[in-house]
Each structure stands twice: as structure tokens, then as C-alpha cells.
Amino acid sequence: MLTEHIKALFSKYKEQGLNHRYITNKHIEPLLKNMANKLQVETIGASVLNQHIYGVKIGHGDKRILMWSQMHGNESTTTKALFDLLNTLLSDDLSVKNILNSCTLYIIPILSPDGAQAYTRINANQIDLNRDAQDLTQPESKVLRSAFEAFKPHYCYNLHGQRTIFSAGKTNNPATVSFLAPAQDKACTITPNRKIAMEIIAVMDKALQELIPHQVGVYDDAFNINCVGDTFQSENVPTILFEAGHYPNDYAREETRSFIYIAYIASLDYISKNEVTGVHYDSYLKIPENEKLFLDIIIKNAKIGEAITDIGILYQEKLIDNKIHFIPKVEKIENLEAYFAHKTIQANNLEVFNSEGELLNQDYENVFVIMNNEKISLLPK
Question: Which residues carry out catalysis (predicted)?
Fold first, then answer.
């Protein structure tokens, strides 16, 4: 399917009821209720705080794909794109009927509803569910494991979001979307199973390169059997990690949402039309590995005491009154020539003060700084 056509589908079927970064059960439950007469929606378990965990089944084909999102509650972009995908598949558009005819999708939109409500990476027991794949100490981990065993997927999509710090390789290009075909042994062997995942990632990368050239990365594939992706891969189910990252000036992750959607459709269309063997995996190996080379803001050539140096700022995401706010925090005060910035402010050797009129120091949090008696906003546009 042509990428331009997938873009048009996104514009037509984007779910208008979901936006920005704070997505919880409260937001998705009305949507699931409206869809209940068109597809299978079921409660498959409960979280630590007894919130429902939902499963959605759509399609009637032989190729089974298991997709789960918000295993980390503060990573919601892939969830928004899942509902865009569901809207598309429930439409009368003939261009996606092959997906429904060839594939059956089982989707868990929010695996960690407590984490989503609190906007945290961890669940209500302070556990990272993506390190609980072996011990299965948490109810949410057991729900995913049960879904995996019952559905018996041929492919798994492990859907996440990543911070603004990542670059696609050692470049001044943000890793707007990243992927990984997780390792399935300590040697990180490129097994036949991994090759299948790599081939599908290569298809998604090709589509995305048309829209965000040089802004796709892959993660380091160091093996950790406690991670869900590594566990499922080790059980010979091709598993793909998706990471929704930063696009310029897109802190709400609405542009990135569209790229994740394009990756969904491109990959599902490919799976539906092909017997994926892994023979075309080579292009995956050319995707640059993510590096941690970005700061949200760099104030260049600032005078701090007697020194001329740089100031690096990262946003802290905080849930305030059911909305995510981006609070600037001074992360580094040093020469930052090795780093890139999503926004650069030139201090031109001027002193940079905080809101109290004091010289800036590390860990300072505020929405502005003062230079030359002028307030300079640090907030994203």
C-alpha cells in the first residue's frame, strides 16, 4: 500500500476523542462501548487497583497478531494510534479489507490502567511490568501472559513511547520512531525468528523514510529475559518493539501518532499479503542505532560566574489537574558541543538568571530564565 494512501487514511479515520499525552481507561471506555457491536470487546483481567484491562479482537484471518500498549502507563502515543487503526479497520474502506480477511488482531489498548491514571512508568505496586515477564508477580503481567497463551499469536507488537533524548544514530536527527527485533539469546544471534521481525521492521522503515527521512532508529538488542519482548522472542514468536519518539515541536505526540499509525498499516498490509520468511531482513541492519544525544533546550555561551559555558534543559512531564505539563529542569551546566538540542537559545556571553534573579544552577525548575533583564520562556510551543 502506498504511503501517501496510508496518510490519507489517517486523516480520515483519526480518532478525535483522544489527544495529547494523558490517556486512561476513562478516555477509551466510551470508544470501546461504541465499538462493541462491531467487534469483540472483553474484560480480560484487572489491575492492582481493580481497574478493568480490556481486550479487543478484530478480523477473521489465519495470521494472528497480538498488540499491547501502555505497559508503561505514561507511554500513550501508540494507544492513540491503535484507535485510529481500529476506526480504519471498522470502516468500509476496501484498501484494508485484506488485513481483516488474512489477519486476526488481538489488542490490549492499556495494559497498565493504574500507571496510565497516575501517568507513571510503573504500576501501582511500583513494578516495571516490562521487567516482570519471567516472575509474573503482577496481575497485569499475568493478564498479558494469559492472552499470549490463549491467542497463540504468530506475531507480537510491543508498543511503547520514548523520551526526547534519543537521536537516530550520531546525528542531529531525533529518533521519531524506533524499533527493535529483540534478542532471544545472550549472544544476540540473528535467528530465523528474529529475521522475520526484522523483515517487517524493514518494511515499516521504508514507508517512514518517505516522510521522516533519517529519523528512524533501532534500540540496542542486549538480551534481558525479564523483558516481555525478549521472552516472547525466545519462545519463537516474532516480536517487534515499537517506540514513539519526538518530532520537532510535537510534545503532544500528535505528529508521531500519525507515523506510528503508518507503521501499523504498512506492516499489517505486508503481513496480510505475504508469507514472511525473514529472507528480506538485511535492510533492518542498516537502520542506525539510537543514541542519547538530545536535550530539549541548550542555552549556548552563557556566563555562569567567571565561566562561559552551556546550559542543558530537559522537560519533566508532570500530571497536574488531569493534564500533562512540561516543566523545564536544568540537567547539565557544561560544554555541550557533543549534544544536540530541540531548541537552541544563544546567550552571547550574557549571565543567565533564574526567576529569583540568581545565577542558574543545576536542577533548577521554572518556565523562564532572565537574560539582559528580559524573560525568556522555556516552555514548548
Answer: 243 (proton donor/acceptor)
Residues constituting the chain: 381
d(CA 93, CA 175): 31
Catalytic residue among 15, 75, 140, 243: 243
Q: What is the DSSP string of 321-346?
A: TTEEEEEEEEEEEE--TT-EEEEEEE
Task: Return the DSSP state at 186.
Answer: T
Judged against a pLDDT cut of 90, whether residue 7 lies above it is answered with yes
User: 295-377 is classed in which CATH architecture?
Assistant: Roll (2.30)
Looking at residue 194, the DSSP 8-state letter turns out to be H
Query: DSSP class of residue 358?
Result: P
Angle (nearest 5°) at CA 177 between 174 and 182 = 120
| Across 133-158, average pLDDT | 98
Q: Please name the fold of domain 3-292.
A: Aminopeptidase (3.40.630)
Task: Provide the residue ranges of all domains of the chain, joining segments of one domain with +.
Answer: 3-292, 295-377
What is the pLDDT, as a whole number, of residue 381?
Answer: 82
Q: Do 3-292 and 295-377 fold alike per CATH?
A: no
For residue range 305-356, list pLDDT tens digits in order: 889 999 999 999 999 999 999 999 999 999 999 999 999 999 999 999 999 9
Contact between 78 and 253 under an 8 Å Cβ cutoff? The reply is no
Catalytic residue status for 243: yes
Is residue 279 classed exposed, middle or buried when 0-12, 13-18 and 19+ CB atoms within 10 A define those classes?
exposed
